[in-house]
Design goal:
The complex is a heterodimer. Chain A is an alpha/beta fold. Chain A contains 13 helices and 14 strands. In chain A, helix 3 packs across helix 4 and helix 5 packs parallel to helix 6. By secondary structure, chain B is mainly α. The chains are: A alpha/beta, B mainly alpha.
């Protein structure tokens, strides 16, 4: 792919037609309804609002962003645990966004998910032999119990658990061990793609490293591609080949790992990276710190123009009016910003400079929607889930 | 963690594997059973329950041992006024608890047979209540939407329903029919319906609440992402998590149902004479309370002990399944 000049409108950024997973303009809006008998839609939580990215085989794409930016929703939509509102998901050459549950059945071997909470992702009433054996039992009814047992035991051994623990129950394991069980269940059917929904966020830092290393080893051995959802920039930097930064349901910047961490262009990425602690107090005090003021705007009523303009330290009039196109500015480096700028993320000569949003507090208040009531968001979420049961 | 991550030794490779050749996991059910076995009060309750159940099952045998019958009038035990011819309702080896005033039927035989009918109705009503409640609760909680609204509002309506008035009115209508008067089976089924049907909203609400919280757990999403069918999710993933609640609720609702049956029989809405039930015996004994006080004591104690036994056992069961309890 040739270098696309920065003036080129929208275009398809960093897209490869041969990629394992191609996500195009994916949207997930959770409807908000009111009324008891005759429910009418009064709004929508725009959890994911048009994201576009690719994942190649054996590649890890990191998906980062602050809480509520839609990164988990995006991951779950790809596994079809949540039905997308619109957009296209092409997996292995097949358009799966409109697949029904029975059509998805054939793809369950290929797309799997690892969950965040190792305590709620394992059924407390099942021994781990049953939990890890479930993928085999569900997909292939011809296997005998003995065959399943030997498969499960070799899997347990592979993820670093004692195969003798076949008959033990989840409550007898530690958090790290439980996450290994979750990993064993996800890789059981040798999937091509695993969505890791914050797989290490709930774990101790020392255990995080083990689980991340295990994921990397399994990727090498089985040739799995990962979508790694996380909010820990360091973990994402360690495991990812490419990283997408999300904000309020949109991708702000997408680049390969080294470019994103050393030469980020988007002001939001700058702000995020300036918040990563540096393990050296002198450098930590001297580096530039970008402070985002105000709260994350409500996804029910996102700001006009660029969704980040309410908190951006570089926001100008144009940002309020015009939605910045998600465009490629360098090979493999796409951003959605009108005023991209290269800025050293760990500049030791910055003399502790602090940059704040230029917008006054009153202006920000005006931007905040009035109907951003958390109950409505919750209700919308439940309503939506009940639809596909 | 920008520094490279070294492969740390596994935190969790237990060293006990070699020493213990057979590592058997203990399920939550097995742990609960272990706790229950150490709960003496619950075991006493369980022993009493077993005793009452055995009495009910072997009622004919017990009656045969003492050569008594629940529906025979032993008029030779009565004096001229129709009262038992001696203290303690004229208790003797032939009639262990004596005979009732008026008709002279054997109290022991009637109590033993009463256990049969009382326990049968209480158990059937419990099965009906729990069955309806669990199904309705799971559907309401899992499906959500208009189905949930429909079921939840039905529960509200049923909870506000005057059960006692309804059962009295229903018996007035049904009780006149010849087929009803003649068939003990129909009477049992009617009582089961009256007691059991109106109770399901209570457990239905509990189950609905549990399912609402369980279905959001990630293991349900995990099962779905593996392509599990709805049936599999309901019966293999959710139901095992509901079983302790169902079990505990059932043991605690049985005594309520025994009392409800006794109350309805006391009011004359229960099984029709001469079929003996404890509530009916209580009702009969009221007339001669001052002259034959021991008559009221027998069915009264039977009801009291039976309800106590189920409550003790149910409490023990609840404690045993409580995740916060000590092992």
């Amino acid at each position: 792919m040739t270098v696309a000049p920065s003036t080129e409108p929208s275009g398809a950024p960093t897209l490869r037609d041969d990629a394992l997973l191609q996500v195009r303009d994916l949207k997930k809006h959770f409807p908000i309804t009111q009324g008891i008998l005759f429910q009418k839609q009064v709004g929508a939580v725009q959890a994911v609002d048009g994201v576009t990215f690719d994942v190649a085989e054996r590649e890890t794409l990191g998906l980062v962003g602050e809480s509520g930016c839609g990164k988990s929703t995006a991951g779950r939509t790809i596994t079809k645990l949540i039905e997308p509102t619109s957009g296209s998901i092409v997996f292995d050459g097949k358009e799966i966004s409109g697949y029904s549950r029975s059509q998805m059945q054939a793809l369950r071997n290929d797309i799997q998910i690892i969950f965040q909470d190792p305590y709620s992702s394992l059924n407390p009433r099942h021994p781990i032999g049953t939990i890890v054996g479930a993928p085999f039992r569900i997909t292939d009814s011809s296997l005998t119990d003995k065959e399943i047992k030997s498969k499960v035991q070799s899997l347990l051994e592979r993820v670093g658990l004692n195969p003798e623990h076949y008959n033990r129950y989840p409550h007898e394991f530690s958090g790290g061990q439980r996450q290994r069980i979750g990993v064993a269940r996800a890789v059981a059917l040798r999937p091509k793609l695993i969505v890791c929904d914050e797989p290490v966020s709930a774990l101790d830092v020392s255990i995080q490293a083990q689980v991340v290393n295990l994921l990397e080893d399994l990727q090498e051995e089985f040739g799995i591609a990962y979508i790694f959802v996380a909010h820990d920039l360091s973990v994402v930097r360690h495991i990812s080949d490419r990283v997408a930064v999300m904000y309020l349901g949109k991708i702000m910047e997408l680049a390969d790992r080294d470019t994103l961490y050393s030469k980020p262009l988007h002001p939001y990425t700058h702000a995020l990276l300036s918040a990563v602690p540096i393990p050296d107090p002198d450098n930590q005090n001297r580096r530039e710190r970008i402070l985002l003021t105000g709260d994350l705007p409500s996804p029910i009523n996102p700001p006009s123009g660029c969704v980040f303009h309410t908190r951006c330290f570089k926001a100008q009039e144009r940002c309020k009016l015009e939605v910045p196109a998600f465009r490629e500015v360098a090979p493999g480096h796409a951003i959605a910003c009108h005023f991209p700028e290269e800025r050293k993320p760990f500049d030791p000569n910055a003399e502790g400079r602090v940059i704040r949003s230029t917008m006054s507090a009153e202006e920000q208040d005006q931007q905040l929607p009035v109907d951003a009531h958390p109950d409505l968001v919750q209700q919308a979420h439940q309503d939506d889930r009940s639809q596909f049961r | 963690m920008t520094a490279p991550l070294d492969t740390a030794p596994l935190d969790d490779a237990p060293a006990v594997a070699a020493a213990e050749p057979q590592i058997a996991g203990r399920s939550l059910g097995q742990i609960a059973w272990g706790r229950l076995r150490r709960d003496k009060v619950a075991l006493v309750g369980a022993g009493m329950i077993i005793f009452f159940v055995l009495v009910a099952i072997f009622a004919p045998l017990l009656c045969a041992i003492f050569d008594v019958d629940p529906e025979t009038n032993y008029t030779d035990q009565l004096d001229d006024l129709g009262f038992p011819d001696g203290p303690w309702a004229n208790a003797s080896w032939d009639h262990p608890f004596g005979v009732e005033p008026g008709l002279g039927r054997d109290i022991f035989a009637r109590t033993v047979y009463g256990a049969r009918y009382s326990l049968t109705i209480a158990l059937l009503a419990t099965v009906l209540t729990v069955g309806l409640g669990v199904v309705a609760g799971i559907i309401a909680g899992f499906r959500g939407g208009w189905m949930d609204t429909l079921i939840s509002r039905s529960m509200d309506i049923l909870l506000a329903f005057p059960v006692l008035l309804f059962s009295i009115a229903a018996l007035v209508i049904v009780g006149q029919a010849q087929w009803y008067k003649e068939s003990v089976l129909y009477q049992i089924l009617f009582m089961t319906f009256v007691i059991g049907f109106f109770g399901w909203p209570y457990i239905g609400r509990i189950i609905r609440g549990q399912v609402l919280s369980l279905r959001e757990k990630e293991f349900v999403d995990a099962a779905r992402s593996l392509g599990a069918s709805t049936n599999r999710i309901l019966f293999k993933e959710l139901l095992p998590n509901l079983l302790p609640i169902i079990l505990v609720y059932s043991t605690l609702i049985i005594p309520t149902n025994i009392l409800a049956e006794a109350a309805l029989s006391f009011l004359g809405v229960g099984l029709q004479p001469p079929t003996p039930t404890w509530g009916q015996m209580l009702s009969d004994s009221r007339a001669s309370l001052q002259l034959v006080p021991s008559y009221v004591a027998v069915p009264g104690m039977a009801i009291f002990l039976c309800v106590l036994a189920f409550n003790l056992f149910g409490d023990g069961l609840r404690d045993a399944f409580d995740p916060k309890g000590t092992q």
